[in-house]
Amino acid sequence: MSEFPFPNYRLQADGPNETGFTLVVQVSLGAGGPLPGLTEQSVIEHLRDYLDARPDVVTQLAKKSIISTDLEV
Length: 73
Prior knowledge:
Shape: extended
Number of helices: 1
Order of helices and strands: EEHE
Low-confidence stretches: none
Distance between the termini: 32 Å
Largest sheet: 3 strands, antiparallel
Helix content: 10-25%
Number of domains: 1
């Protein structure tokens, strides 16, 4: 998924008979931070819960990010 900016989320929702969605979402915060009362994680989890609420749907959620570590010389 290198063509998508980091961090990003991949949400896959699979239904019966090979139906479903694969969503790739990047959440960018505004200059002052997220909307009041919401976090990046809560927005993504709400979307997953919305799809997962259907009895014949199974969801998978993954977060892709790059983490750097400063090494002392």
